[in-house]
Design a protein that fits this description.
The structure is a homodimer of 216-residue chains. The first copy, chain A, has 216 residues and is α/β, with parallel strands linked by helices. Chain A contains eight helices and five strands. Chain A has two domains: 83 residues, Glutaredoxin (3-Layer(aba) Sandwich); 117 residues, Glutathione S-transferase Yfyf (Class Pi), Chain A, domain 2 (Up-down Bundle). In chain A, strands 4-3-1-2-5 form a five-stranded mixed β-sheet, with helices on one face.
Chain lengths: 216, 216
């Protein structure tokens, strides 16, 4: 396989999702740790928005965490992230968007804004709004998990990418904000799902830091 | 092929992108027009967020516009939305995210907020912020289009899904807010790109309205 470099940030949930994906596929990747307040010029050259994760494959950039995961699936089909059936795969991809946009994003965005302050364009209560949005989604997640007999979002023995994407959330939520963890009595399937994700060996990737790269 | 029903809204850019995708593939689909202030119970059953586009395939739901387009690509490979090479496809998928998230979303969100009012959680200047975000992206789009010799975002003879996704923007921007159209002198490739998109027969889909469905 080509030389692979993943521009990453330890605390970024979407970089974490890409790291988990590489580990689950058993594909080695060189990890570069950026300083988000001083993003490297080389990263901006590869990806004008300067965002991570960005994957560098022989000098070409692949941007956005799901796109990186789909590229991994295309180039390294086993173990599969998605079922072979096109309809089931489409359902999985829709569930992945739900996990990324409705669960992971509001939680991590609320943490970032709490830690580093609001943007000038934010509503003054933006942190609280993001957390309300998240807590309104727990019953939806519980319902989605109730559609299958097994522990995962699709009727599959192993987790699909829709499940694996939630690993950074499964780890950071109880670590950073235990008071935001969904009530286990009201959300038994969701509680079990988050716990099963934390039990996978690839969970170590959530905390993995790359080699630091200077900004400029 | 199965019975296909697309839950849609004429003015939604992402429903428009899905309609364009069906037309480009030559796949017939039954179009259902929702009232966004009174979303049908059946839609909420299929997709708990109640959002459009949602595709119903034999009673199962496929949600999110890109997921619907990827399902079309999987089940109806010709004409192809993506190049066969995995690396080029990944680059295309990253560019599609740029078009959706950085161009289409801020423009249409600003229009919706201007027409229907701000949400309680919005900054009072949210409309202006979205428009500033959009105008900061025009030079990035110009640069991305400058990476290839041809008129499209990838080095391809025909547009890929990354290009086609911009069709609702190409139509509505001059129609709804001519003052936001990027300056042609500073953005010749972007101007040509938007014009070429408007010349495709599938442009008619941007304005297509489905059969109205009662809410409840």
């Amino acid at each position: 396989m080509s030389t692979l470099r993943l521009w990453s940030l330890r605390t970024s949930p979407f970089a974490g999702k890409a790291r988990v994906a590489f580990a689950e596929k058993g594909v080695a990747v060189e990890l570069l740790e950026i300083d988000p307040r001083n993003r490297p010029a080389r990263l901006r050259e590869l990806n004008p928005t300067g965002r991570v994760p960005t994957l560098e494959v022989d000098g070409h950039a692949i941007r956005e965490s799901t796109v990186i995961c789909e590229w991994l699936e295309d180039t390294q089909p086993e173990p599969a992230f998605w079922p072979a059936d096109a309809g089931a795969r489409a359902m999985g991809r829709g569930l992945l968007r739900f996990v990324d946009d409705e669960l992971t994003r509001p939680f991590f965005l609320s943490m970032r804004k709490e830690a580093f302050g609001l943007d000038a364009t934010d509503h003054p209560d933006a942190v609280e709004h993001l957390r309300q949005q998240l807590s309104r989604r727990w019953p939806v997640a519980e319902k989605l998990l109730g559609r299958t007999d097994g522990p995962w979002l699709l009727a599959s023995e192993d987790p699909t990418l829709a499940d694996l994407a939630a690993m950074p959330l499964a780890v950071r939520l109880p670590q950073w904000k235990p008071e935001l963890v969904p009530d286990p009595d009201g959300h038994p399937k969701l509680t079990d799902w988050l716990e099963r994700l934390r039990q996978r060996p690839s969970v170590a990737e959530v905390d993995r830091q790359g080699e630091k790269v200077d900004g400029g």
